[in-house]
């Protein structure tokens, strides 16, 4: 795998391989010494043109646990403010020795441009581009669902028959897009629940069912309910009901939680708008996987960097750190 740019074109076999390698990485992290020498001598650059907490620190932790050197670049405070282009910024980082570039950018398609323009030869990982995709978020979500469903017996399994309801601001959500494509590739059934003003125009071409009533969708007893952040910063006021109205109709709270089966998990990619799309009772409940998703993200990102940078090593070599 040269790059990870999206889940729409990610082959089922590659997706399952990332999830299975992430299992190995999780096992390695449960040992006394969590660090593997697998990527010693490699350099990973986190190239972030938008704010991030989870994704940036997760990629940093993942690279460091594989013994790679890490350079963190944030556009804020850099020469981007003086007008430096994406091309010049990326080439500058490659001149310093980047083997992989993890890029977050407000422009949909920026990671693909980096990967295909010939500007740099490093592997590119999309860490979230505009409203397009966030593939490692979807992979860590799939890993979390699989782990909750199959536990220690997860390796090699897909998500056939698993029912996932994705709720909220689908229009602006790269997380929703990446999840829809990956969950479909892995055999899950996806239902989107969203206000009519926050559904993409091309949704009829997506492998999903669409509902506008959250209570009807929850009555179908899904296996996972994935709440999305309301992206007020990307939104025109005309597209959004009042916050109160939104919470009443599409928010997940303790009352709705009580109606769900005991083994339905509640997911959120973060950051959460507590009290808007999800109440604190729901976010902090035993069925919430919010922090589990964060922890699993490190394993999934270790697997992704391994796939990009470690070449054709066997599992034995991986464990030895060859
Ligand atoms: N889920 C996610 O992308 O979070 P951050 O914006 O904090 O990276």
TrEMBL record:
It comes from the Bacteria. Pathway: Pyrimidine metabolism; UMP biosynthesis via de novo pathway; (S)-dihydroorotate from bicarbonate: step 2/3. This is Aspartate carbamoyltransferase. It catalyses: carbamoyl phosphate + L-aspartate = N-carbamoyl-L-aspartate + phosphate + H(+). The keyword Transmembrane helix does not apply. Residues 161-308 form the Aspartate/ornithine carbamoyltransferase Asp/Orn-binding domain. Transmembrane segments: none annotated. Heterododecamer (2C3:3R2) of six catalytic PyrB chains organized as two trimers (C3), and six regulatory PyrI chains organized as three dimers (R2). Keywords: Pyrimidine biosynthesis, Transferase. It comes from Microbacterium panaciterrae. The gene is pyrB. Signal peptide: none annotated. HAMAP family: Asp_carb_tr (MF_00001).
């Amino acid at each position: 795998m040269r790059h990870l740019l999206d889940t729409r074109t990610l082959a089922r076999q590659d997706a399952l391989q990332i999830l299975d390698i992430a299992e190995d990485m999780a096992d390695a992290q449960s040992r006394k010494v969590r660090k593997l020498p697998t990527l010693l001598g490699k350099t990973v650059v986190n190239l972030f043109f938008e704010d991030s907490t989870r994704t940036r620190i997760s990629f940093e932790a993942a690279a460091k646990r594989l013994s790679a050197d890490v350079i963190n670049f944030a556009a804020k405070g850099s020469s981007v403010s003086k007008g430096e282009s994406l091309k010049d910024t990326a080439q500058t980082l490659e001149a310093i020795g980047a083997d992989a570039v993890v890029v977050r950018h407000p422009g949909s398609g920026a990671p693909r441009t980096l990967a295909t323009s010939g500007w740099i030869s490093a592997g590119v990982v999309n860490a979230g581009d505009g409203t397009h995709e966030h593939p490692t978020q979807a992979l860590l979500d799939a890993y979390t669902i699989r782990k909750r469903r199959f536990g220690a017996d997860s390796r090699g399994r897909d998500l056939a028959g698993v029912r996932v309801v994705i709720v909220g601001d689908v229009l602006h959500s790269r997380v929703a897009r990446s999840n829809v494509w990956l969950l479909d590739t892995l055999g899950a059934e996806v239902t989107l629940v969203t206000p009519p003003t926050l559904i993409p125009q091309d949704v009829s071409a997506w492998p999903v069912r669409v509902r506008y009533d959250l209570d009807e969708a929850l009555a179908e007893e899904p296996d996972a309910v994935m709440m999305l952040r309301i992206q007020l910063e990307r939104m025109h006021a005309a597209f959004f009901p009042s916050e109160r109205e939104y919470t009443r109709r599409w928010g997940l709270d303790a009352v709705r939680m009580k109606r769900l089966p005991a083994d339905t998990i509640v997911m959120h990619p973060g950051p959460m708008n507590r009290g808007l799309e999800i109440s604190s009772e729901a976010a902090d409940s035993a069925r919430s996987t919010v922090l589990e998703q964060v922890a699993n993200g490190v394993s999934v990102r270790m697997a992704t960097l391994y796939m990009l940078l470690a070449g054709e090593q066997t599992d034995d070599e991986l464990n030895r750190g060859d």
